[in-house]
Design a protein that fits this description.
This protein is α/β, with parallel strands linked by helices. It has one domain: Nucleoside phosphorylase domain (Rossmann fold, 3-Layer(aba) Sandwich), CATH 3.40.50. The protein has a 5-stranded mixed β-barrel with strand order 5-9-8-6-10. The protein starts with about 25 loop residues before the first strand and ends with a helix.
Length: about 280
């Protein structure tokens, strides 16, 4: 057995950076881009930035709720499941246990999942290859129910309940081929997207499958080690609808406004989960 301390290769992080919240560890927000991680961090108190040449800078800080302090962090996962897999693996092996993806997506149900709405992801269609290196595709990729419930509670508090949809999303490997019909098998890809829409899948994105499958495996490892429920892994994903493929896209100004509200919803969701877990400092 290898007892050497884990050394990350893609971030400048030590285990003590992810500690806090009475042993649960920091609540970690995982946007796709560093720009969005930076935007999230502007809401933090006591901000500290740990930079890395690969651009996966770690933003550490706190947020307050009812006079109590919650330890939080933000770091970009990068685009797609291969990048999410690397970042999540390193975070977990450095002590991270609470993960919230905050991202964007395209609606597959434009009649009711509209531009500017949000998706509280319950499960993910594993239409990518990264997670099959971990588990066969028959095993579903699902979020953690306590986190899902906290997002619902947060949407009620912020008056966004009617704009929040809870359900399944599509996680893909290819942005242009699968979603926009690029390449010589466009008919096959377009038919697949139509199938997902007809099955009621809410939206399409590129990272949730890795987040969910890895978190399920890490959680099982901690259960096998005898850890109690507060010291296991919880994950969720909150997605902002900024497109209705293949032709309708939010303007940069619209997208910024949509994402700013999403950040507020994400931080309120963490406050709700922290309160439910009684993890305040």
């Amino acid at each position: 057995m290898n007892n050497k301390p884990f050394k990350p290769h893609h971030m400048n992080v030590q285990p003590e950076d992810l500690a806090g919240n009475n042993g649960i560890g920091r609540y970690i927000l995982l946007p796709g881009s560093d720009g969005r991680a930076m935007a999230i961090s502007r809401q933090f108190d006591n901000l500290e930035v740990k930079s890395h040449p690969r651009g996966h800078h770690l933003y550490l800080g706190t947020i307050s709720d009812a006079g109590k302090t919650i330890d939080v962090a933000a770091i970009a996962s990068g685009m797609g499941c291969p990048s999410m897999e690397i970042i999540l693996h390193e975070l977990f092996h450095l002590g991270g246990k609470r993960f919230l993806r905050i991202g964007t997506a395209g609606s597959l149900q434009p009649r009711h999942v509209k531009m500017g709405d949000y998706v509280n992801v319950l499960a993910s269609v594993r239409d990518e290859c990264t997670t099959t290196d971990y588990l066969p595709v028959e095993i579903p990729a699902v979020a953690s129910l306590p986190f899902v419930q906290s997002i619902l509670q947060a949407s009620e508090k912020l008056g966004l309940r009617k704009q929040l949809h809870t359900g399944t999303v599509h996680c893909k490997s290819s942005f242009y081929a699968r979603e926009f019909g690029a390449g010589p098998i466009a008919d096959k890809n377009n038919a697949y997207i139509d199938l997902l829409a007809n099955a009621g899948v809410l939206a399409t994105e590129m990272e949730t499958a890795a987040l969910f499958i890895q978190s399920q495996l890490y959680n099982h490892q901690l259960i096998q080690q005898g850890q109690d429920s507060l010291h296991r892994v919880l994950c969720a994903a909150l997605l902002a609808i900024v497109a209705i493929p293949p032709t309708e896209f939010a303007t940069p100004e619209q997208a910024a406004d949509i994402v700013n509200r999403e950040i507020d919803l994400a931080l309120e969701s963490i406050k709700q989960l922290a309160s439910n877990e009684k993890s305040f400092a």
